[in-house]
Amino acid sequence: MSKMIDPDTTENPTARPPLGLPTGSVRALLALLIVAVVIVETVRGHGVDELWSETLLIALAHYFTSRRFVGLVPDVLRRLEAEGHVPRESNPLYLPRHSIRALIVLSFAGLAYYIFEIRGVRSLAEVPPVLITVSAYLLGVFAGSLWTWRVRHRAVTSSRLWEDLKALAVILALLAVSIPYFLNHREPLPLPQVRNAALALVLFYFGSR
After folding, report:
1. Smallest Cα–Cα separation from 28: which of 76, 79, 82, 66?
2. Phi, psi of 154 (to 5 degrees)
3. What's 8's DSSP letter?
4. Mind giving me the DSSP string for 55-99?
5. Domain residue ranges of the chain, discontinuous segments joined by +
6. Among 8, 102, 105, 142, which is least packed, fewest CB within 10 Å?
7. Which among 65, 57, 52, 56 has a CA at the least distance from the CA of 24?
8. Residue 122 and residue 131: Cα distance in Å, rounded?
């Protein structure tokens, strides 16, 4: 005689987050560890390995864009959470909301202070590339968040013309530095400064979306 299985008492492996920690804790811990390695290597004057830089950007992009964004007023969102229509957003590593983001931003702000004030770097060419790329991306994130807040709370209309012009500017900037690669003429164009500025603009655009 077969035994009846109660689905309510059956263990569901997908219902338990990894290690029993709040949802997003493992991603947050990995992101913080990657940030720590990159900053320590930069402060020590070691060139950050390209793979570490790429991993950092992927981790930041995933972490900053994987958080839930619901276009609802707080009261409506809380009611939907209480009724079970929308899952509650847990706090990774049991920390207050937005703590991980704040730690990441403050870490790179501290690195920027060290580079410009302690080390006394004044030339853009001497700035570690990882600081430029991360700063461009995070600046885009803040710009996009600020604009979204203004549209939602200040009754500001989002201009499609502005969005189109911004997209066109980024495409043209990247094309300007990409064509020499397609033609296999990397010198004298694109100049390193022009290339870095164009790529930073692209990262800013991705962050602001």
Report:
1. 66
2. -115, 10
3. T
4. HHHHHHHHHHHHS----S-HHHHHHHHHHTSSPPPP-GGGPPTTH
5. 20-88+96-122
6. 8
7. 65
8. 14
Nearest CA among 54, 52, 196 for reference residue 125: 196
The tokens of 143 are what? 């710009």
pLDDT digits (tens, 9 = 90+) for 88-114: 666 788 888 888 889 999 999 999 999
| Residue labelled with tokens 């043209």 | 172
Helix (H, G, I), strand (E, B) or coil at 166: helix
Q: Considering only CA atoms, give the Rg of the chain.
A: 22
Q: Looking at this protein, which amino acid is placed at residue 12? A: N
CB 116 within 8 A of CB 180: no
Contact 199, 130 (CB under 8 A): no
Q: How far apart, in Å, are the Cα atoms of 94 and each of 25, 28, 61, 72, 188?
A: 8, 11, 22, 25, 52
Question: Phi, psi (5° rounding) for residue 23?
Answer: -55, 130
Identity of the amino acid at 100: I
What number of CA atoms fall less than 13 Å from residue 110's CA on the CB side? 13
